[in-house]
Amino acid sequence: MMNANVIPTAFYGLQNLIDSLNNLNGANEKNENAEKAECVKREFTYSPKADYYEVENGFTLEVELPGVRKENLDIQIEKNILTVKATRERKESKMNYERSFRLADDIDTENIQVTLENGILAFGLVKKQQAAARKLNVV
Fold it and tell me: Which of 3, 26, 41, 78 is 20 to 30 A off residue 91, Cα-Cα?
């Protein structure tokens, strides 16, 4: 039987938000002349939606980053792990995105093409050129 006072981990942040709103409302009811209470500004990191598809000589990876500008992107590759970090800032809100992708060993990480258009960050992932088979002669 689940204890009524235990909050499942998935809802912990939601309960904090509800408690904060209730406290703000209670503070205004108790003291109508109180200065306007400041909301706590919190930052969250979201994992953006991504999709990939195979093309003639590799793959195209698309990451949805609506409202993100080029100067707010941080893209890194280390040991075949492609990491995308981005920030979208609007009036009073800030949204952080972060997602990592493990690239196959046959992807040429030196020749990745990156474009950002209409909120879609696209990576052109080209397969490495395979060495042609050759016959070896025994001497």
Answer: 26
